[in-house]
Design a protein that fits this description.
It is a multi-pass membrane protein. By secondary structure, the protein is mainly α. The protein has a single domain, classed as Rhomboid-like fold, CATH 1.20.1540. It is built from 7 helices and 2 strands, in the order αααααββαα. The longest helix has about 40 residues.
Length: about 190
């Protein structure tokens, strides 16, 4: 197993898919409950993040977050000698959650089964980071704490700095894509209008 996980970090030219396992893990879940919980959080926070970033940027950030959180998980597992699968879906979901909580720290949140207890998004993010840091430091195996931390830190970084550093340089390309799509839609090109 050690050899298999190590191949993700090598640059062997014979390997045709270095990052594809990390990208595909963005859609991997441990169980149906894991998938249901992740999809509920994604459903709850995705509209806010899409309104902040736009559809194209959201998809790019989500897929990048899956790869980054899986990579962080692999590094942590290699460092601790625990060779278990890494599922990047939770890390990507944590990116979405952290992005919203960073941009809207005063928003009120509640737990689905305890709606009477509310707390701010900023407090929730601090609690989640503290929980996952403790889990990583103490070796808890309840969640993939390294993937959660990698996703949360990436989400916080992206909405604070990454948008300006990365996306602003690609904005003209996205605008040209939208203009081309709008022209094709207007000519009966079969495309959908927004």
């Amino acid at each position: 197993m050690r050899r298999v996980m190590f191949t993700y970090f090598t640059s062997d030219p014979s390997s045709k898919a270095l990052c594809s396992p990390m990208l595909l893990s963005t859609f991997s879940h441990f169980s149906l409950f894991h998938m249901a919980a992740n999809m509920y959080v994604l459903w709850s926070f995705s509209s806010s993040v899409v309104s902040l970033l736009g559809c194209e940027q959201f998809i790019a950030v989500y897929l990048s977050a899956g790869v980054i959180s899986t990579f962080v998980s692999y590094v942590a597992k290699m460092a601790t000698g625990r060779f278990e699968p890494s599922l990047g879906a939770s890390g990507a979901i944590m990116t979405v959650l952290a992005a919203v909580c960073t941009k809207m720290p005063e928003a009120k949140l509640a737990i689905i089964f305890l709606p009477m207890f509310t707390f701010t998004a900023g407090s929730a993010l601090k609690a989640i980071i503290a929980f996952d840091t403790a889990g990583l430091a103490l070796g808890w195996r309840l969640f993939d704490h390294a993937a959660h931390l990698g996703g949360a830190l990436f989400g916080m970084w992206y909405v604070t700095y990454g948008h300006e550093l990365i996306w602003k340089n690609r904005e003209p390309l996205v605008k040209a894509w939208h203009e081309m799509r709008t022209k094709n839609t207007g000519k009966g090109g079969g495309g959908r209008s927004n």
